[in-house]
Amino acid sequence: MATFAYPSTRYDPAPVVDLGSREERERLSPSALKAFFNIIERWKVRDEDARQLLGGVTNGPYYEMKKSPEGRVLETDKLLRISYLVGIFKALNILHDKELADEWVRLPNTNRVFGGSAPLAYMTKGGVPAMQMVRRLLDARRGGR
């Protein structure tokens, strides 16, 4: 009987980031927030929707983060949410020109995942699982699957 093994790769695996570690969150939070606010600006997302994308952040903390991202330490959930949004942003910019990439989240979408609504509405309503679905959908389109 033949034994099959998964083919080896010449690349070392990327190190896993421990988002449970305060040190890692301290290191990642300022750049994550800067990326988040740049994406929100490019996508022309209203502050109310942006707060929902971060998990329902209230006005005060949201505007503090926006004003001064340095020195902030985000919870794991918020870093995960921002990570999904960065991946979505990247995939959109690979798939589409800059204008469509920036508008895509606000446009009604006929894909049955969205049911005719805009991906932004789907993500603000569905939270992390919805962001993960959008990311997977775009990555599959980007990869030709």
Describe what this molecule looks like in 3D:
This protein is mainly α and 145 residues long. It has one domain. It is 61% helix and 0% strand. The chain has helices at 22-43, 47-53, 59-67, 76-95, 98-103, 119-142. Helix 1 packs across helix 4 (76-95), helix 2 packs across helix 6 (119-142) and helix 4 packs across helix 6 (119-142). The longest helix is centred in the last third of the chain and has 24 residues, at 119-142. The radius of gyration is 17 Å and the shape is globular.
Give me the secondary-structure category: mainly alpha
For the largest beta-sheet, the strand count, sense and barrel status come to: none
Helix content: 55-70%
Q: How many strands?
A: 0
Mean pLDDT across all residues, rounded?
93
Number of domains: 1
Summed up:
With 145 residues, the chain is mostly helical. It has six helices and no strands.
Short key terms for the protein model shown above:
globular, 6 helices, 145 residues, mainly alpha, 61% helix
